[in-house]
Amino acid sequence: MDWTREALAVFVREWRTEWRTRVALTSTVLFAVGALVLIGLAKQVGRTAFEPTVTATLLWIVLLFTAASGLGRAFLHEEERGTALTLRLCARGTTVWTGKFLANAVLLVGIAVITAPTLLTLAETPVRNVGLLTAVSLLGCIGIAAVLTTMSALVAQTSARGGLLAVVSFPLLTPLLLAGVHGTQAALGVGSKPGGMVSFSVGVGDVKILLSFAVIAITASLLLFDFLWND
Amino acid sequence: MAQLAKILLGIGTAIVVALSFLYLPAAEGFPSPELARIVALHLPNAMAGLVAAVAAGCYGWRYLAGGRNPLDDARSLVAAVLATIFLALTTVTGMVFAQVQWGQFWNWDPKQTCIFILLLIFAAYFVLRAGIEDEEKRATVSAVYILFAAVMTPVLGYMVPKYLPSLHPTNTSFDAAYHTVIWSASACLIGLYAWLFNLGVRYERLRLHLDAIVRDEP
User: Of A219, B54, B84, B181, whose CA is between 20 and 30 Å from A77?
Assistant: First the structure.
């Protein structure tokens, strides 16, 4: 019980400090909006609706890059403000990781809630199974948040910082990208007969893969984070 | 003893190269059977690369769990460098092979993709190392990264083939001659890996000594 409260306290602290400036929040949302505007404009040039395969790919590219631009702050912040040592005294490594991961996951899910419907409307791609799309995006966001939280802790130790987060995490996120794109395509009706709804079962394999990816990423992070934190 | 091992390794490698050109029959079941002999170089490189990649992960673990010995970090680094070289050679020979057999240098085949992603991970590992000044911090961060990658990459090997169609043969069985040459070539390359690894670690050990001497000088 104590562990849960500690993790929740870190989570609440993350959002409270974030809410004072709202820098990460606004910059991340604006990054996503900027990407969506560019996609919308680019589509106007061609004057045709996107194929569902293109829409699914764009959705994941926007999510990945938005996450890489905004989620890196989790640990960078502590190093910059010099609060890492105090946090180290107050909380255990696993609770710090969990709190920050939850804060990142909530932020990323919020981004996805804005991005996915906007992108689908812009691209004029009809959704053929909303439940599947929701499940795939939710699990994908959790997986991305888990990997990026750990990687941002590593990158915060370097002198380069900014650009490194994408470099070190994208190769690790490739399985998630493949399953996410495939599951989203299934929810948009790729590979099914045209017209009407598709059943959840067309993408259940992808949902399972995304779920196991998230579980593995969270477990590996929890096991390894202590080595970094208690250094 | 070490001298003998090196001489034997040299003779063995020479024999394997000779065998792969002179003794191997053309592989049936490939679009271009004569040119399939490149597998005798391609597969052993992949095996040596994977051995080196696993070694890099194991030494990373030993660094974190076994008392943070800077030499273990150096061993992990040397293994990672060698893994990158062997995996790059695997990719190049694989691309030549793919061009000859399937008419395309690059076709996002799952094995091709997996090896390439491994290469990207090692590239990221070197960039990460280059970004950290402090030696202890660098060792810890890179060990955590390589262990995280070691946990996530088996997932890759399992997942990627589900999404990408493969051109790699699954049903063609090589005849016994191929097995002999491929396995002996693998043994030679893994021996070569061990030799290079030993040289690299000795170099790193000297560098650590030198750094310590320079640091102690007023």
Answer: A219
